[in-house]
Amino acid sequence: MDADLVVVGAGLFGLTVAQQAVEKTGARVHIIDVRDHIGGNAYSYKDEETGAEIHQYGAHLFHTSNAKVWEYVNRFTEFTHYTHRVYTTHNGEVFPLPINLGTINQFFHSHYTPEQARNVIAEQAGELAGTDPENLNDQGISLIGRPLYEAFIKNYTAKQWQTDPSELPASIIKRLPVRFNYDNHYFKDTWEGLPKDGYTAWFERMIDDPRISVSLSTDFFDPSQPWNRDALVGQVPVVYTGPVDRYFDYQLGELQWRTVYFKEQRYNEDDHFGCPVMNFSDPDVPYTRAIEFKNFNPERYDQLNHERTVVWEEYSRFARKGDEPYYPINTAADRSLYSQYKELTEQQPQVVFGGRLGTYAYYDMHQVINSALIAFDKQIEPMLKN
Ligand code: FAD
Ligand code: UDP
Question: How far is the CA of 241 from the centre of ligand 1 (A)?
Answer without folding.
Answer: 9
